[in-house]
Amino acid sequence: MALKTPDPRKVRILFNQRVPMRDGVMLSADVYLPVGEPRQRPVILSRTPYLKADMVVVERAQEFVKRGYAYVAMDVRGRGDSDGGEFNPYFNEGRDGYDSIEWCASQEWSDGNVGTYGGSYLGAIQWLAALEQPPHLRAMVVLVPPSDPFVETPTGLPSPMHLCWLHLVSGRVTQPMEAVDWEQVYWHLPLLTMDEQAGRVNPRWRADFEHTQLDEYWRPLCYQRRFEELSVPTLHISGWYDDEQVGTPLNYIGMTTRAATPEARASQRLLMGPWGHASNASSKIGELDFGESAVIDLYGEVTRWFDRWLRSINVLTAPVRIFVMGANTWRDEQEWPLARTQWTPFYLHSHGRANSRFGDGTLSTTAPEADEPADSYTYNPGNPTPFITDPTSSQIGGPDDYTAIQRRDDVLVYETEPLEQDTEITGPIRVDLYASSSAPDTDFMAMLLDVWPNGFRQRLCDGMVRARFRDGMDRPSLIEPGKIYHYTIDAWNTSQVFQAGHRICVQITSSAFPKFDRNLNTGAPLGRTSEFVSAEQRIYHNAEYPSAVVLPVIPQ
Predict the structure, then answer these.
(1) N or C, fewer C-beta in 10 Å, the chain?
(2) Annotated catalytic, 242?
(3) Given 75, 208, 242, 375, which residue is catalytic?
(4) pLDDT tens across 403-412, in order?
(5) Listed residues 333, 351, 382: the one ending a domain
């Protein structure tokens, strides 16, 4: 769809307004105002590393201006027209966000009420700014935000695909991601020097390898541990196939249970659609089309939120609105997770040969017998299990068909019998896994899938655990080869009706490349070596070690 050119008869743009930060650095903002209406009005602020001089930004500004708001688009420190030296993602955004919000509130065209808006990086930095307690911040609309360090990638290392993003925002202008052969780059070892393979030494990539566990270096970026300090009304938006999805439900739960005041806890809203990282962009992701209702009037939703908190126009809405895939319908709810959830363990079973979709792995609500044999497979870092994705980090994964992947013997597959009736699974997915390895460190991955009668194996959500971080990202310790450990895998969230005749499926493996880096199985310092060994993995599912996926079943 063609982007709309701004109409100078309706929108007045004040280009390159210089905004002073407390340390003297000047940031650049473009201010969008309605023509012929000099009155003061509430302000919506978006701060971006992706350049404010972009027609997508211009079109967004027009939408908010015609709804009666002033809109401010700002280049963050070190990017675009802003000063500040080399861009250092996240670390300056809290203080800069505070100063920017207060600048907006003090301008002659502002009535002092400021809301913030944006997705992905623009979403996470809203939280960092809010923690600085700017007095004039009245509300936030946060889309698809990254979480705290290591929540999405609990590996101690950045995802190989994160380098693609760092390349995009290198220097002062946006770099072409498509100019690099990323599929070839991701194979490079050691991971520390993968940036050279992509064509440039990246200081931020290298810096992260100095801090491969949660330590004081990362603390300033950990907003999800500090919801008790916040009281900002927030509209939380994401999609079930957003590759940073896990943060949005966590943030909603955090604010509704831990925000500073009862009023703040009650002033949150969650909106989850059938979308990827680009919210509301299309009804179709990959091979699946979720129907006409999948794309909504998102500007309308956002405007109603800002109207409520910046203009005191109260429009009653349910606190949670979700799109239920499979049924392909929207539904209002009162909380997340849903209060009526029946948390149901589906236990892993086999006769010791669950390898591939041709094996004997099954999944059921019946607890395992005492003597049920374990499953085993060999994890070879030189031939990792693929994670289906486009090569750039613009969208990592989707409702992809894992039929071919599940031909591999290093993938354990457990699935139910065909369901006799529609079964809704809506909420967080957790896997309790009992496993041993011949290695001192290794990984275990879990994925939930919907197996259609025609054979299509639809990925829903997934997660992983790195053995050395089984007790937390701040407490790494190697494992004893051959010893059985209990691992808890957060497989994120979904909302899916498994229709009658479909099967619920879980796959277990030890890699999902290149979404996560390959564990080299040696126990060596992370990211700095190239040597690897194969690991013999065993998954246990008996009365003593009842491996299971715990599913949020919603009664019909």
Answers:
(1) N
(2) yes
(3) 242
(4) 999 999 999 9
(5) 333
